[in-house]
């Protein structure tokens, strides 16, 4: 049974976007409702969630403690953030195809980039589609 056919909660969605710059007049009603699973998940059978630990991806907007929405059905493209398994260890990095092979790139403090050598085993488990974090 597909979770999209269940009676999942829907939450009010304001009819107008809220500007991050100068304030604009507020509306007193909502026009739509939103179900987060419908908004965040494209391939329900291939989607999983993972919690991040560490600070090496803060430059990509991924912070320690974030919950990532990962899609295994989405084909990984150059420069996308992925969940990779390198030599049996999981990591979240930006995958970059370079002349020397594959670079798993960080963007923040903590562990650095990983240039994958021919002797290493690399598998991409999925593409990170969303990062959810507390503000």
Q: What does this protein look like?
A:
Strand 6 and strand 7 form a beta hairpin. Helix content is about 5%, strand content about 40%. With about 140 residues, it is mostly beta strands. The protein has two domains: about 40 residues, no CATH class; about 90 residues, Umud Fragment, subunit A. It contains one helix and nine strands, in the order E-E-H-E-E-E-E-E-E-E. It has a seven-stranded antiparallel sheet, with no helix packed on it.
Structure in a nutshell:
The protein is mainly beta. Helices cover 4% and strands 40% of the residues.
Summarize the topology.
Elements: E1 11-14, E2 30-34, H1 36-40, E3 47-51, E4 67-71, E5 81-86, E6 89-98, E7 101-105, E8 114-116, E9 122-132
In total, how many domains does the architecture comprise? 2
The secondary structure category is mainly beta
Number of helix segments?
Answer: 1
Mean pLDDT: 85
The CATH fourth-level homologous superfamily of the largest domain: Umud Fragment, subunit A
List segments where confidence is low: pLDDT < 50 over at least 5 consecutive residues: none
Beta-strand content estimate: 35-45%
Identify the notable features of this structure and list them briefly:
single chain; 135 residues; mainly beta; Umud Fragment, subunit A; 2 domains; 7-stranded antiparallel sheet
